[in-house]
Design goal:
This protein is of the alpha/beta class and 162 residues long. The chain has a single domain (9-158), classed as HUPs (Rossmann fold), CATH 3.40.50.620. It contains 7 helices and 5 strands; from the N terminus they run αβαβααβαβαβα. The termini are far apart. The model has no long low-confidence stretch (mean pLDDT 91).
């Protein structure tokens, strides 16, 4: 229940092509979204405002462990996906196992590729594919004061653990 927006890549590719054929602009972003906080909400709202359909590619548990270390993710991918699917601004979610969303982006070819402010446009994975297909790439500014790692550290220190 609550995972109707969660799609396999092949099905999502068909949805994207159909939506684009109807003139709708598809926006894509990706991430771990381990502990959802207000900074994520601000970012996803801004990403959604860039088009008509917002797709999130969610790092799998194994991918998060490789990127963030053995203690992550805090929440399993099914729960992270369910939380993202519950957000009104999110249209579709897909889970990917690789370290980068390169293959997902190459498959979907969204109209707009969005990442957070810690990524300069020339360092955004998938940029070349999206721009070659006529799309655009944006680096959205972070809302200061929000960080999943900072939140985890705050929780750990509240319980006297580091």
């Amino acid at each position: 229940m609550g995972l109707e927006k969660l799609k396999q890549l092949a099905e999502l590719q068909q949805i994207v092509r159909r939506e684009q054929a109807h003139g709708r602009r598809v926006v894509f972003t990706n991430g771990c979204f381990d502990l959802l906080h207000a900074g994520h909400i601000h970012y996803l709202r801004e990403a959604a405002a860039q088009g008509d359909i917002l797709i999130i590619a969610l790092n799998s548990d194994d991918s998060v462990r490789r990127l963030k270390g053995a203690a992550r993710p805090i929440q399993p991918e099914e729960e992270r996906a369910e939380i993202l699917c519950a957000l009104a601004m999110v249209d579709y979610v897909t889970i990917f196992a690789e370290d980068t969303p390169q293959a997902v982006i190459r498959t979907l070819l969204p109209d707009v590729l969005v990442k957070g402010g810690d990524w300069t446009p020339d360092n955004i994975v998938g940029r070349q594919e999206v721009e070659a297909a006529g799309g655009r790439v944006l680096s959205l500014p972070f809302t200061p004061g929000y960080s999943t790692t900072g939140l985890i550290d705050k929780i750990r220190s509240a319980f006297g653990r580091r």
